[in-house]
Amino acid sequence: MVNLALLSAAHVHTKGFLQNIAEHDDRNLVVVYDDVADRGQRFAADNDAEYSGDLAAVVARDDVDGFIICSENTRHLGLLQSAIPAGKPIFCEKPFATSVDEACTALELIRTHGTIVHMGYFQPFSAAMQGVIAHVAGGTLGTITHARYRNAHHAAYGRWFDSSDVNWFTQPDLAGGGAFMDSETRTAISEKGISIWLRAELAVLLERVLRRNHRPLLKQGDPEQILLQLMAERDPVYGLADLTVSSNQGPHENVVEDIVEALQRHLAAGLKDEK
Fold first, then answer.
1. 94, 103, 133, 176: most buried, per Cβ within 10 A?
2. Where in the chain do CATH 3.40.50.300 domains reside?
3. How confident is the model over 218-255, as pLDDT tens digits?
């Protein structure tokens, strides 16, 4: 019997993982840690497991053989830093980290402690994908020069984020860049609507984010340097939006007017193309 500890029940896939555990006799959920006590207690009660708000105590338990991390994206690193030194296998939901530096920090810990860490990219191991791989490798489909595949879900359109347990996906501080950083979400937005990037200069962003002390990413060092790194990573993706509108200093009403004008031009251009 493999005894598992769940480190946070924030991710939308948590219920699926716990169902898998419940359906097999060779695995057992013994404890749930969650920094959101109500959420953790509910998931623990529903799965006949203990609840603990003490991460260090859960990681140190002798009766735990491995960990499942289903936290908000920007909290992956903290949980990995706590669990990896224990040397027990870890499954971490995707994305592994929200920046290159975070990923490198976790990888260095993995190398130091020799811990097995698997990420939530298990589609290649499904029976369907293994079948495709076998056909490709066997030459059944000839010489393949190009392939395109998209694994998407209805997410926001299925009202997933109505739940207080998972609506953090819409919060950049917890999701790590916001929903638009996810390629599947961008595709859904493109198919169903119009995306707008409200672009601001570094000085403006810095002034805005320092008004409140509630952004986890900016607590990890110099806020200005962190913002510069985030802009370098995210701006190319945000630039894929249908429209870009400048959002700098000035009344909000001005930005709203700019958005309306940009939408009008965009829609007018679309009507011309249809003709």
1. 176
2. 155-274
3. 777 888 888 888 888 889 989 999 999 998 877 888 88
Tell me what pLDDT residue 163 has. Answer: 75
Measured distance CA(117)–CA(238) in Å, rounded: 30
Fold category of 2-119 in CATH: Rossmann fold (3.40.50)
Give the integer Cα–Cα distance in Å for 20 and 68: 12
Strands (E), the chain: 2-7, 27-33, 50-52, 66-69, 90-92, 117-119, 196-199, 243-246
Report the C-alpha gap between 48 and 41 in whole angstroms: 10
Residues of the chain with CATH 3.40.50.720: 2-119
Query: For residue 138, what are its two tokens?
Result: 């066997």
Is it true that domain 155-274 has CATH number 3.40.50.720?
A: no
| 194 vs 185: CA distance, rounded Å | 12
Among the listed residues 9, 16, 72, the one whose alpha carbon sits nearest the alpha carbon of residue 45:
9
Q: Which of 21-30, 41-50, 136-145 has the lowest mean pLDDT?
A: 136-145
